[in-house]
Amino acid sequence: MSYKQFIYCWQKWLLSILVRAVVMICLTAGMLGILGSTAPMSHAQAVFPGSVAANAQLVSTIRRIQDRQTPLKSTALNATVYHSPDCNCCGGWIAHLKAQGFKITDFPTPDIETVKQKYNVPDNLSSCHTAIVNGYVIEGHVPADDIKRLLQEKPNIVGLSVPQMPVGTPGMEMGNRKDPFSVFSFDRKNSVAVFNKYPSS
What is the pLDDT of residues 108-142, one digit of tens each? Predict the structure, then answer.
């Protein structure tokens, strides 16, 4: 190999190393910019479109995880509660929600059944009061923690219910007695599922 051929091969090899290094730096910088950005995806695409296309699924997964970990304090806790004017336990449940950070709009009504029909509460899930919390129907003495979980997960359902008035639910306290009860979810087709379970004590 002549001296000129040696120089040519050496320059070609060095150029290939430099190109790979530049590509890796750009990919790394692009991913860090996208994953660390709070801007909409369109802005990230403008920063480094090729990287977004190659890593769209990864970015989407990471953002879903971040959304689930977003503190609930960023979500307004507004509840409109409909109940009979003579219902004392409804007042206890309202006090429970207030203590958990909910802002209450209180609507006593003598025609609570009309409210339940308006919001499509199934007869077998009905209780003494009906509330609307951020668009979800909350029927009966549902614990605040379950409502907060509902608002965190945002499932495609109508709402939650604790049917009837089990002793030991929020607003139905009677000393140390606590009956077992379940929190049910229901959808527009009246499909019912267990959302949470509470044992007796």
Answer: 999 999 999 999 999 999 999 999 999 999 999 99
DSSP letters of 96-133? HHHHTT-EEEEEE-S-HHHHHHHTT--GGG--SEEEEE
CA 155-157-158 angle, to 5 degrees, is: 135
Q: Give 82's strand partners.
A: 107, 130
CB 113 within 8 A of CB 88: no
CA angle in degrees (0–180, nearest 5) for 67-145-168: 165
Bridge partners of 129, per DSSP, are: 83
User: From residue 23, how far is each of 6, 29, 35, 56, 153 by CA, in Å?
Assistant: 26, 10, 18, 19, 39
Are 188 and 158 a contacting pair, CB within 8 Å? yes
Contact 123, 139 (CB under 8 A): no
pTM over 0.70: no
